[in-house]
Amino acid sequence: MRRLSTTQADFDAQLTELLAFEAAQDPKIDTAVAAILADVKSRGDAAVLEYTARFDGVKAGSLAQLEIPNAELQAALTRIPAARRAALESAVERVREYHERQRAQSWSYSDADGTELGQQITALDRAGLYVPGGKAAYPSSVIMNAVPAKVAGVREIIMTVPTPRGERNDLVLAAAALCGVDRVFTFGGAQAVAALAYGTATIPQVDKIVGPGNAYVAAAKRRVFGVVGIDMVAGPSEILVVGDGSTDPDWVAMDLFSQAEHDELAQAILLSPDSGYLDAVAASIERQLAAMSRRTVIEASLKGRGALIAVRDLGEACELVNRIAPEHLELSVENPQALLPQIRHAGAIFLGRYTSEALGDYCAGPNHVLPTSRTARFSSPLGVYDFQKRSSVIGVSRAGAQKLGAIATELAAGEGLTAHAKSAAYRMK
Question: What is the spatial distance between Cα 152 and Cα 122, in angstroms, rounded to a whole number?
Fold first, then answer.
């Protein structure tokens, strides 16, 4: 990993280079995805079936044959080991309990003249959940996307999960059963995003698509945004650790590994005012790396986008945190609460040496779908609020129409909108 210090004359330039990430879409992928979307929009079920046969090696006579009955989801729940089922159930309960506190409520108030103003909160009718499939098992993705939708009151959740060569994962199906997913289909890719966005004879159009996927899925979500809502187009995973030297270096090294093992483009950074501690973590990285099953990926990530950065003090570390705006921030210090008010930009903040980022990924409670690539400066974790929408409510009384009418007619006249002015004036005495 590269070593940097805020006292270096060229530190700003080096940090800018470290944080740089080219998020531009591959033109070949974008062109291929555009064609798939247009084809599914035009031919519906038939196109989805053709792409699923071509890309996943799964042939079916109809999309209905690719839907997993609820009984099969429940059977998967009974097949998984008891300890793993208990872990899933505990994670679902903790995530649900946290997200129930996010549910927004409608409200209203009345002016002195009797005019009623307010806001009505309603849930989306239908959400689409994309889950990676095949050998990969991501039940946590099911939990983190389905639970807030259910808590929000979404009427129907339709999940798509690719099953290359027919390979299904019981953990994913069990999570769908526990989370109350309404319908599950075994196809994925850009064709799944298209089916959810536009609707087909078998797949009803959803209002919002959430969940992670590969480059083709990300490109498809970009393109259908506006037809439907999407959660976000996420970049590589990130972790930023602020350490004061009080946490075991082996723990911090493994925390850095936990994000680096996701992807060669993932980013893992440690900030500390203690240069000796940076040395200790670097030594731990070297010692522990050999035992990692994804060693090659971790090495590429740490070498390409990782860094150990010496700062003057913890105050300067917080300034850097806000500049970097990381997806995951660990405040691995003796008194993290003292630093918390100084943090403005981070997707999720983990307080203290015992709070590993991995706990947030699975079972702490808050959502693990987080803004990446510095977008934490202006966006937030996925939550119940992403599945609710607000409608303004306006009920003007006769007396209110006199006061508001005078204001509206004056402003409408200033804008040259005669019909607006007359519409308000007709209701005045």
Answer: 8
- Decide if 388 is inside a domain: no
Shared domain for 63 and 143, answered yes or no, is: yes
Residue-level pLDDT at 220: 97
- For residue 135, the model assigns a pLDDT of 64
Going across the sheet that includes 116-123, the strands are: 107-110, 116-123, 388-395
Residue 101 CA neighbour count, 13 Å, CB half: 7
User: Which residues form the catalytic set?
Assistant: 327-328
- Structural domain includes residue 124: yes
What pLDDT, on a 0 to 100 scale, did the predictor assign at position 254? 98
Q: What is the dihedral of CA 256, 257, 261, 266, to 10 degrees?
A: 20
CB 363 within 8 A of CB 90: yes
**Residues lower than pLDDT 50 in the chain:** none
Distance CA(88)–CA(178), nearest Å, equals 8
Domain coverage including residue 192: 27-230
Q: Residue 279: helix, strand or coil by DSSP?
A: helix
Least Cα distance to 244 among 327, 324, 313 occurs for 313
- Cα–Cα distances in angstroms (integers) from residue 411 to residues 286, 394, 399, 414, 415, in the given order: 69, 19, 19, 5, 6
CA pair distance 339, 355, nearest whole angstrom? 15
